[in-house]
């Protein structure tokens, strides 16, 4: 059994990671103040490079106060230090948030008419763009071509969120929440020296959370799954360049940046959405905990206590086996399917014995095995496990962050994806 580790998504010790925060001229520029605060409070050395238009929304004193250093606003300040070259050369990460349609166009075409665009040309570190604009601008063929060009060159362009835009408009084009952009940036920083975007051009589906099977309008059968591991998998996949669909069952977590989130409640709903999304997916990771059983009938009114103190009998039936279905009825040739097994072991075998039997029974390519004896793993920020392969491989992942486990899982998936 091999042991694998992945870089933790935290700033490395020693020298402070150097981050350039580019801000272009959109109303969402005010949200970047929160992103800057998260970087500085977590120990990063941040240089803010706003465009002239961005300074119309948020002034230089604000950026200076939050970053704790002078703000670089133009190529003419401190010319002897050659800022239009040095800032990009010395950066460990460049993130542009918000990235307007104008900024994306300039970056794609190699224009260098101000300090930010010059910095983008000289940077040899990972570059992340977080677009924000009206839906029509995002969907315009010119913008989509520019985004494709940037991605082809190795930049990570995060998909914008859907929601309220400027004025009364709503749609796709909203800047993802700063906390989630920050999480993606940590993932990119952690992997900066490891590998590029090995999932670029891939569509992956991740399920997360625990399903609910209703007994009546207020009661349900459920489980303790928090969705943290599934969300970590989604964030890690975005940082590696994938298009991500996250089918989320009853999870109280913020939407990861750049991820399409589909919300469900029951196992039947989870099955329908996973099967639908899997039709165009290169990989499916079933990190959700679907209920194995559901009531044969659901009361239309709240079930009342009986006067004699007796409890109602609840008849159950099996739910569809989603993992078995998508494993044995592959939507696409070469599709990689990953399952999870939360095991405790019993008189019939150990945790790994039961997991190997489940791997064979389900027909998936990989099975991530968690020992959940005593309620371990559920709701915890950390995880550990063994990744079993249908080819006989077994990779032990020691205890660490759920993000670290997520990257090991994607390593195993990437190794099995076909061109």
Q: Would you give an account of this structure?
A:
This protein has 2 domains: 2-191, Flavin prenyltransferase-like (Rossmann fold); 203-416, Rossmann fold (3-Layer(aba) Sandwich), CATH 3.40.50.10300. It is globular. A hairpin with a 5-residue loop joins strand 7 (161-164) and strand 8. It has a 9-stranded mixed β-sheet, with helices on both faces. Helix content is 31%, strand content 24%. The chain is built from 13 helices and 20 strands. Helix 1 runs parallel beside helix 2, helix 1 packs across helix 8 (178-191) and helix 4 (101-108) crosses helix 7 (141-152). It is α/β, with parallel strands linked by helices. The longest helix is centred in the C-terminal third of the chain and has 15 residues, at 402-416.
Portion of residues in helices? 25-40%
The name of the CATH architecture of the largest domain is 3-Layer(aba) Sandwich
Radius of gyration (CA) equals 24 Å
Low-confidence stretches: 6-13
Biggest sheet: strand arrangement: 1-20-19-18-17-14-9-12-13
- What oligomerization state is this entry in? single chain
Total strand segments: 20
Estimated share of beta-strand residues: 15-25%
Mean pLDDT: 90
**Protein structure class:** alpha/beta
Distance N terminus to C terminus?
27 Å
Q: What is the highest CATH level, the class of the largest domain?
A: Alpha Beta
The gross shape turns out to be globular
**CATH level 3 topology of the largest domain:** Rossmann fold
CATH-defined superfamily of the largest domain: CoaB-like
How many structural domains in the coordinates? 2
Q: What is the tally of helical segments?
A: 13
InterPro entries: CoaB-like_sf, CoaBC, DNA/pantothenate-metab_flavo_C, Flavin_trans-like, Flavoprotein
Family: In the N-terminal section; belongs to the HFCD (homo-oligomeric flavin containing Cys decarboxylase) superfamily.
Pathway: Cofactor biosynthesis; coenzyme A biosynthesis; CoA from (R)-pantothenate: step 3/5; Cofactor biosynthesis; coenzyme A biosynthesis; CoA from (R)-pantothenate: step 2/5
Region (Phosphopantothenoylcysteine decarboxylase): 1-203
């Amino acid at each position: 059994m091999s042991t694998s580790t992945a870089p933790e998504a935290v700033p490395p010790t020693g020298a402070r990671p150097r981050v350039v925060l580019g801000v272009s001229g959109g109303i969402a520029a005010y949200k970047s103040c929160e992103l800057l605060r998260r970087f500085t409070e977590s120990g990063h050395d941040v240089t803010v490079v706003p465009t002239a238009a961005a300074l119309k929304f948020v002034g230089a004193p604000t950026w200076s106060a939050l970053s704790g250093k002078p703000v670089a606003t133009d190529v003419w300040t401190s010319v002897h230090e050659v800022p239009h070259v040095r800032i990009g050369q010395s950066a460990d990460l460049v993130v542009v948030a918000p990235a307007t349609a104008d900024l994306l166009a300039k970056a794609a075409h190699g224009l260098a008419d101000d300090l930010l665009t010059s910095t983008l040309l000289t940077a040899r570190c990972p570059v992340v763009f977080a677009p924000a604009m009206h839906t029509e601008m995002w969907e315009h063929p010119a913008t989509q071509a520019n985004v494709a060009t940037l991605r082809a060159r190795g930049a990570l362009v995060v998909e914008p969120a859907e929601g309220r835009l400027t004025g009364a408009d709503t749609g796709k084009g909203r800047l993802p929440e700063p906390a989630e952009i920050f999480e993606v940036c940590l993932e990119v920083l952690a992997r900066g020296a490891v590998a590029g975007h090995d999932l670029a051009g891939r569509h992956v589906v991740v399920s997360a959370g625990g399903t609910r099977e209703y007994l009546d309008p207020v009661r349900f059968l459920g489980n303790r799954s928090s969705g943290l591991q599934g969300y970590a998998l989604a964030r890690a996949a975005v940082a590696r360049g994938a298009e991500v669909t996250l089918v989320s069952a009853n999870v109280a977590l913020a939407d990861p940046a750049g991820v399409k989130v589909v919300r469900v409640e029951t196992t039947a709903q989870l099955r329908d959405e996973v099967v639908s999304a899997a039709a165009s997916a290169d990989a499916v990771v079933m990190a959700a905990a679907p209920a194995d059983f559901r009531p044969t009938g659901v009361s239309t009114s709240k079930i009342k206590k009986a006067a004699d103190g007796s409890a109602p009998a609840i008849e159950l039936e099996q739910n569809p086996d989603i993992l078995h279905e998508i494993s044995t009825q592959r939507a696409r040739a070469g599709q990689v399917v990953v399952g999870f097994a939360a095991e405790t072991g019993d008189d019939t075998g150990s945790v790994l014995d039961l997991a190997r039997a489940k791997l064979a029974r389900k027909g998936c390519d990989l099975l991530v095995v968690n020992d959940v004896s005593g309620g371990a793993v559920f709701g915890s920020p950390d995880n550990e496990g063994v990744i079993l392969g249908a080819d006989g491989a077994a990779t032990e992942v020691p205890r660490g962050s759920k993000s670290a486990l997520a990257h090991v899982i994607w390593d195993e998936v990437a190794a099995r994806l076909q061109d």
